Amino acid sequence: MSANYQTIVVGTDGSKSSLLAVERAARIAAAFDAKLIIGCAYYESKEQASKTLRQDSVTILGDDKARENLESGKAHAESFGAKNVGMEVRPGTPVEALMSIVNDSNAELLVVGNRGINSLTGRLLGSVPADVARQSDCDVMIVHTVS
Fold first, then answer.
1. Domains of the chain, first to last
2. Could you give phi then psi for residue 75, rounded to 5 degrees?
3. How many other CB atoms are there within 10 angstroms of residue 25's CB atom?
4. How far apart, in whole angstroms, are the C-alpha atoms of residue 9 and residue 86?
5. pTM for the full model?
6. Mean pLDDT of all residues in the chain?
7. pLDDT per residue as tens digits for the range 40-68
């Protein structure tokens, strides 16, 4: 494992708080001259979305909305110096999507916002940042995006 990050993944759901995570990831990518991959999950149907117990993240139905989020995330990342920015959409929960993108890209760092981690639901059912931190084989940075 090299000391430098070569591939960094960050998740966005289009929210202001997730764009703070994108900004932090972009600054790190710029510092290491790393590839930044912005990921967004989406649900293929309302039924899929309602199967997830957690309501701590923005529910995105269909990949059109996900792609819109990625476009704005990419522009945001580039404004903070990231030069090599890729975009990935994946069906499923945010955790499933991010783990899939991290594994497919052999990323060394995953950046997520802290939304949900301190909520009652987050403590009982788990939250996106806590779950990816447990499941990830790479470094995970949890950015303080909501107080």
1. 7-117+134-143 (3.40.50.620)
2. -60, -40
3. 31
4. 9
5. 0.86
6. 86
7. 888 877 777 776 655 545 667 667 888 88
